[in-house]
């Protein structure tokens, strides 16, 4: 069961990371928010970045290119939380095996 939970946590964190990579790339390249895919990515990832808003500056370069440090930090934070969850599940699972429970 813990294997399933670890796989599920890994999948969710991986999905979040992919969405945030897309957001970072689209912002960096100055993608137009009128494009449906760009709007969907921004709308989907905005709630994920709420805890980190205004923590870092977001410099813009002429032409609409944006270096969004908040997204980079969010990627790091979600990867770290995912790692912690994976490790906790591994510890719980290994303790269950040592005590004879499966």
Walk me through this protein's architecture:
The structure is a single chain. The chain has one domain (2-98). The mean pLDDT is 90. The chain has helices spanning 2-28, 36-49, 69-98, and strands at residues 60-61, 65-66. Strand 1 (60-61) and strand 2 (65-66) form a beta hairpin. It has a two-stranded antiparallel sheet. Helix 1 packs across helix 2 (36-49). With 102 residues, the protein is mainly alpha-helical.
What proportion strand? under 5%
Euclidean distance between termini CA atoms: 9 Å
The profile of the biggest β sheet is:
2 strands, antiparallel
Contiguous runs where pLDDT drops below 50 for at least 5 residues:
none
| Strand order across the largest sheet | 1-2
Q: What's the multimeric state?
A: single chain
Query: How many strand segments?
Result: 2
State Rg. Answer: 18 Å
Number of domains: 1
Q: What is the element string, with H for helices and E for strands?
A: HHEEH
Q: Note the total helix count.
A: 3
Structural class computed from helices and strand pairing: mainly alpha
Report the helical percentage. Answer: 55-70%
Mean pLDDT: 90
3D shape: elongated
Summarize the structure.
This protein is mainly alpha-helical and 102 residues long. The protein has helices at 2-28, 36-49, 69-98; strands at 60-61, 65-66. The termini are close together.
Itemize the secondary structure elements and their pairings.
Blueprint: H1 2-28, H2 36-49, E1 60-61, E2 65-66, H3 69-98
Antiparallel strand pairs: 1-2
Helix pairs in contact: 1-2, 1-3
